[in-house]
């Protein structure tokens, strides 16, 4: 088996994500302590975010010392080969902080810049979502398929919000227009879990501004392998400016509605 084999990389990612999830459950106190903030005072980091990433990095280095790693908490480590690991040690930290169930350990694996394997361990629910490029998306031995043939006005749409006030102003304006045009809106609080929810047919679509690569690397592959289209606006790839995910047909309807609202902007400072 070649060193870059997606199935081998997936197997290792599954083991590491499972171990990190077990550690987080075992060590999570009744109310984890905030040790730092990022983009705003409400964008928090706990000690267990860092401990989870440290564990994941240590396991990757032990098994594959030449690989590169990009993690949310500790940044980028250069590697010597073709493989890079994209790590979110806790996606949905605010949910983790408050004891809400929508958070996950997310690990995606690139070969030559393309995600070929992904694992999202939705720890509180005990669900391990997986995918390999061209190999489908899976949960508990069942292949996942996103919902198809759902028009926008009957679609259950997941979304998320940023932490900076100027961005939230615009996001509120956007959701106020989207809400009357769809079945309903869901806000779970984890990009990785939302993408897996599209893959599993628990929601019909998802959009959000402000996600980072580690948020959507694994979940985006899982959704795509379940038949969803994943991208940004106007033909751009998914990125910090916008992530949109839904089955073909609904994707285009949701995309066109969002594009008409100019959502890739922030309100003027002080508004």
From TrEMBL:
Residues annotated to bind Mg(2+) 1: 72, 88, 91, 215
Record EC number: 3.1.3.25
Organism annotation: Acrocarpospora phusangensis
Chain segments annotated as transmembrane: none
Residues that bind Mg(2+) 2: 90
Catalytic class of the enzyme: hydrolase
One Pfam family cited in the UniProt record for this chain: Inositol_P
Family listed: Belongs to the inositol monophosphatase superfamily.
Molecular function, one GO term: histidinol-phosphatase activity
InterPro entries reported in the protein's UniProt record: IMPase, Inositol_monoP_metal-BS, Inositol_monophosphatase-like, Inositol_monophosphatase_CS
Known role: Catalyzes the dephosphorylation of histidinol-phosphate to histidinol, the direct precursor of histidine.
Cofactor(s) listed in the protein's UniProt record: Mg(2+)
Gene Ontology BP terms: inositol metabolic process; phosphatidylinositol phosphate biosynthetic process; signal transduction
Pathway participation: Amino-acid biosynthesis; L-histidine biosynthesis; L-histidine from 5-phospho-alpha-D-ribose 1-diphosphate: step 8/9
Reaction(s) this enzyme catalyzes, per UniProt: L-histidinol phosphate + H2O = L-histidinol + phosphate; a myo-inositol phosphate + H2O = myo-inositol + phosphate
PANTHER family for the chain: INOSITOL MONOPHOSPHATASE, INOSITOL-1-MONOPHOSPHATASE-RELATED
The UniProt record lists the keyword ATP-binding: no
The entry's keywords: Hydrolase, Magnesium, Metal-binding
Stated name of the protein: Inositol-1-monophosphatase
Tree of life domain: Bacteria
